[in-house]
Amino acid sequence: MKKNLQQWYGATFQLTRPRSTQSKLVTKTIASMYMVLFCVVGAFAQDERSPDLDMLLQNKEQVEEEKERSGPAIIELGNEFQNSIQLLGNRFRIDNDVDEVTMVFFREPGSSPIVLVRPDGSKVFLEDDDDDNMLRWYETETYDMISIKKPMPGPWQAVGQVLDGSKIMVIADIVLDAKPIPPNIYSGEIIKQTAVLRNAGKQVDFSPFRDVVSLSIDFVSNNNPNYENFGLGSRTIARFQDNGEGFDEVAADGVFTGQFNLSIPSGEWRPTFSIRTPMYTREQINETVILHKNPIRIETIIDETNEGEHVILIDVDPEHIKLDSLLVDGKIKRPNGETDNISLTELSSEARKVKVLNDSFGIYRINITTFAETVNGRDVIIDVPEHTFVTKAPPPPEPEPVPEAEIEGASPSLDLQPFAEPIEPEWSAADTFTVVIAINLCILIFGGLSLFLIINKRNNPDDNILMRLQESALSLLSKIKNIIPKKSAKTEEATSGKKESE
Asked: Which InterPro entries does the annotation name (predicted)?
């Protein structure tokens, strides 16, 4: 009975050895009372659960029905009384033919990781992941993901603050059930694709589970040298969301929506559906698709008169798109910053024309989205790469020639050229650099000369260069003074002789 109590109720009794005979007697008495009490409760619980438990363990057909209702590898175990006991809540059973099981337990945000109790009563903790090669445990603030290889068959328990109404999910075979991608698609095409997540063939509609898995589609190049995508590897083109944003219609309804924007080089690609969890990644490779070049063509006729309108022609590749199904929506940004909206909703078998007023010079930018139907009858939405064209301002007019008659009849003193103010040269950075260098050279020359004279005077106080220069200057001045009076005397004599001769 005690062993059964330990297995089913998790109650373990540890009797501490007393130090005295009296303490032993008291301890044995208390232990006996507890044993009697638990025997009564256990017998009552045994009576309460025995019909359901016996049916669950002995009736094979009932077990199979429970499996189909709760999943292929796990069933709930215990009646309402047993599951109302905190230690025995969140009970489940693992079959003996399960090689590996991955479980997800959603719990209160910020709560501690759960504790697993094996059928033999032993505990499995988060820390056991470091030492046990058969156990992998990934925990966050909101859930625990646990993977166990060759788990012990029988009833298991999960102890922790598991969310009310939460499901103990066993990941058996997670796949993304999505519609196949069309075999012929186009660069720039926008595709909305919905998919559901299935676990062992059943749709997963439990909203917290969307935080556990990551869903995406990659395009892997076939490396065909005849196409542009040769050697490009893989490109992620879509991520599936179930958050009610973008193309997703309803949040947390179990239907994931992916929006494709095929802005990748054309060529042969293999769509690869990837499902990633914190513990493993699974891929599903679909049939090869051909991504064709963008089938929308834009041509421009530029106005050369600089007074009319530019013409934009929007056409399609007739091998892929029906021209009479083409609708156009977009914008044209002119060089002056103004924007013209484009909305062409009239169906026609001719190329669409858009006229733009030629009132500015520079770059015109055209961004459009087209809605059309393929030759196979599939509706498509295609983003067209930005198309640009450039216009230049006309050259200035040449000056009018002046008639020769006017030039001959004009007064010789008349200046025919118009008065033009002298153009002052602009001061450039090179001029500033030259002036700075000249000033520095002057400072260096005069500074060095002054320093040389000071040192020479200090070393030769009685005979230095300054004294010599001073003496030379004085002698030069005395010579000049002597020369000037002699010239003046000669000039006076010559003047007086001239007067006498007259």
From this structure: CHP03503
* One-letter amino acid for residue 440 of the chain: N
Which residues, 6+ apart, have CB-to-CB distance to 143 below 8 Å? 104, 105, 106, 107, 208, 211, 212
pTM of the full structure: 0.54
Single-letter amino acid, residue 442: C
Residues pairing with 190 in the sheet: 261, 381
Residues 6+ apart with CB under 8 A from 45: 8, 9, 81, 82
Q: Are strands 115-117 and 100-106 parallel, antiparallel or unpaired?
A: unpaired
Residue 380 neighbours by CB under 8 Å, 6+ apart? 186, 189, 321, 371, 372, 373, 374
Q: How far apart are CA 38 and CA 61, in angstroms?
A: 33
Give the residue range(s) of CATH 2.60.40.10 domains in the chain. Answer: 174-292
Domain 296-391, CATH number (from 2.60.40.1470, 3.40.50.2300, 3.50.50.60, 2.170.130.10): 2.60.40.1470
Tens digit of pLDDT at every position of the chain (502 positions)? 333 433 333 333 333 333 333 444 434 444 444 444 444 334 444 444 444 444 434 444 444 454 444 444 445 555 444 444 343 457 888 877 778 888 888 888 888 999 999 999 999 999 888 888 889 999 988 888 898 988 898 888 888 888 866 666 677 777 778 888 889 999 989 888 888 888 878 888 777 777 788 788 889 999 988 888 888 888 888 888 777 777 777 777 778 887 776 888 889 999 988 888 888 777 778 889 999 999 999 999 998 877 788 999 999 999 999 999 999 999 999 898 889 999 999 999 999 999 998 888 889 999 999 999 999 999 999 999 999 999 887 777 777 776 665 555 555 544 445 545 555 666 677 778 888 888 988 888 888 888 888 888 788 777 777 778 878 888 888 878 777 666 555 566 666 555 555 5
Tally of CA atoms within 13 A in the half-sphere of 470 that contains its CB: 8
Chain region(s) in the chain for CATH 2.60.40.1470: 296-391
Instruction: Calculate the alpha carbon distances from 116 to 72, 108, 208 in Å.
Output: 20, 17, 21
- In 3D space, the residue among 288, 298, 232, 239 whose CA is nearest the CA of residue 264 turns out to be 232
